[in-house]
Structure formats: structure tokens, C-alpha cells
UniProtKB/TrEMBL annotation:
Name of the protein: YkgJ family cysteine cluster protein
Organism listed in the record: Pseudomonas viciae
Family annotation (Pfam families): CxxCxxCC
């Protein structure tokens, strides 16, 4: 596959997309008055909810936690909460924080997850974006070395930040996850508390004791499998989070 790409400034990638953030970027977003959304998914030691080929990548960006009588590995994404146009997009579709924009914005349209190939049909960029511009992919390989380095920086931040992210969640009372592949749990924390907790936990040694988490599932069939593994399943109606199902209707 050969692919060229040139941004035409349509602003679609800056509209209705929650942009994943590193810890530094999440703190900056809070300082700028933005809202962070916390998205959580997890998988179990028996591999439920995770294709075998993706296990190594998933383990590297997840934290080991307790759930009932078993362990789980929880992956946590802090993202810029964008409903509608990004708060940093001006009337001419130009980014007001371009020089300090998040890594994921710099990497677009490429994917961070190595198991998700670039799919032009899934992008909202207009056709002319792919008709001219520098070579992006040649023979199926990414040819932009600077872009490749940014992708690796983002993956490294995922790995390095996860323990602090998990402790932030524990401190903020975030302890319900979805099963990877079944959905996400989504939280909108108070940003004053979020920023203060982030600052506190980054400046002190992390606790070694694993936190206790529970699963919110899309249906009884999946819930029975998770319960059989020994994990804890919540049945109450969500109070401080929303469940985003990935299950086909």
C-alpha cells in the first residue's frame, strides 16, 4: 500500500473527537480550562476480552489490579473531552495551541495502536487530502521517520504513565471498568480535584498495593463469563460514569 497525505484544514479531525493525552498534556489541558474524560477498559488473565495477537501491546500499557478473587489488567486513557469543535480551534479551523498541541494531534492520521492499520475509509478527511502531499506510506511501511518517532513517544508515554493514572483513578473514586472489546466506562472528573490529585501523585512514590476494580458488562452472557473467572461484576445503575458499549446491536 502506498499513501500520500496533506492536511487541507477541514477541521473534521478536531470535531467530536476525544484526543488521548499524556499526563503532561492532561495537566496542560486542565490549566487551560479544558475538561478531561477518563476512558477505562480491562482484560483478565485468561485472555477474555483480548485477541492473543494483541496481548503484549495491551499488557505493556496496563496496570495489574484486583477484582474479586482474581487479577485484571486495566488500561486507562485520559483524553481531551471534545463535544463539537475543539475549544482550541479558531474560526478559520486553525489550532490556537499548534506549537504545543498533543502528540496524538501531531500523529494524525496515523494510529497509535500497532494492531490498527491506517484505514482511509475510516478517516473523515476529504478525498483531496489523500490525493497530493508527501509520501506517508510506501510499500505498506511508514516512511516519515519523524512521525514514527512521535508514535513511539506516544506508546512510551502510555507505558510510563499507566501506574500514575491508576492511582489517580483510585484517589478520585474511579474503580469500575469495562471489558476490553465489550465497551468502555467513561468518567468526567471534577477538574480541580483531577489536577490536584495528578500533581500530588506525581510527586510521591506510588503505593505498591493493587487497587480493587469491578466490571460493568454489556449483557448477562458476558457477565457470566467474567464472574466465572472470579472477577467482580457490578449490577447497579451507573452513578458517576457512563458505559459505552462496543457490542453490535
Amino acid at each position: 500500500m502506498n499513501t500520500t497525505f496533506s492536511c487541507v484544514g477541514c477541521g473534521k479531525c478536531c470535531t467530536d473527537h476525544h484526543v488521548p493525552l499524556t499526563l503532561d498534556e492532561a495537566r496542560m489541558w486542565a490549566d487551560d480550562g479544558g475538561q478531561v474524560i477518563v476512558l477505562v477498559e480491562a482484560f483478565l488473565p485468561n485472555g477474555l476480552g483480548l485477541p492473543a495477537a494483541q496481548r503484549e501491546h495491551a499488557e505493556r500499557r496496563s496496570a495489574v489490579v484486583r477484582s474479586g478473587t482474581t487479577e485484571a489488567r486495566v488500561a486507562i486513557t485520559f483524553a481531551a473531552y471534545n463535544t463539537g469543535r475543539c475549544r482550541n480551534l479558531d474560526d478559520e479551523n486553525l489550532c490556537r495551541i499548534y506549537e504545543r498541541r498533543p502528540l496524538v494531534c501531531r500523529i494524525y492520521p496515523m494510529e497509535i495502536n500497532p494492531h490498527i492499520p491506517l484505514n482511509i475509509a475510516a478517516k473523515e478527511c476529504p478525498p483531496e487530502s489523500w490525493e497530493t502531499g508527501p509520501q506517508l506510506i510506501l510499500g505498506g511501511e511508514l516512511v516519515d521517520r519523524e512521525l514514527a518517532q512521535l508514535i513511539e513517544r506516544s506508546r512510551q508515554a502510555d507505558r510510563e504513565d499507566i501506574q500514575v493514572k491508576e492511582r489517580i483513578c483510585a484517589s478520585l473514586g474511579i474503580h469500575t471498568t469495562a471489558l476490553k472489546g465489550d465497551g468502555f466506562t467513561a468518567y468526567l472528573p471534577d477538574m480541580t480535584a483531577f489536577a490536584a490529585t495528578l500533581d500530588q501523585l506525581r510527586s510521591q512514590p506510588l503505593a505498591q498495593q493493587a487497587s480493587e476494580w469491578q466490571f460493568h458488562l454489556s449483557g448477562d452472557d458476558i457477565a457470566s463469563q467474567v464472574l466465572a473467572s472470579g472477577a467482580r461484576v457490578v449490577t447497579e445503575v451507573p452513578v458517576n460514569y457512563a458505559f459505552i458499549s462496543l457490542r453490535a446491536a
